[in-house]
Design a protein that fits this description.
single chain, 84 residues, alpha+beta, 2 helices, 3 strands, elongated
């Protein structure tokens, strides 16, 4: 690496930065799918057909901790309710 090159960010860096930027009046809720590539893709498509989430709302497939597995994250934002 030369002095002019910048280190590359991990593939999930954008996902992580999005999570940390949640405004205080909203709560982030994350749904995480981990499994085989086909299993994760099929589940995302099933959840789309059920009206749960658009396919494009899920993160790109990311490597999971276990070999042969991938993961995808869906982040939803909920309005926080003041205590009663």
């Amino acid at each position: 690496m030369t002095g002019e090159e910048k280190p590359t960010q991990p593939p999930d860096a954008d996902v992580i930065s999005d999570i940390s930027e949640t405004p205080p009046e909203r709560e982030s809720l994350r749904v995480l799918l981990i499994g085989s590539r086909n299993g994760v893709i099929n589940t995302i498509q099933t959840l789309y057909r059920l009206g749960f989430a658009e396919v494009a709302e899920w993160s790109p497939l990311l490597p999971a901790p276990n070999p042969g597995e991938v993961m995808s994250i869906l982040t939803r934002y909920l309005l926080t309710q003041p205590p009663r």
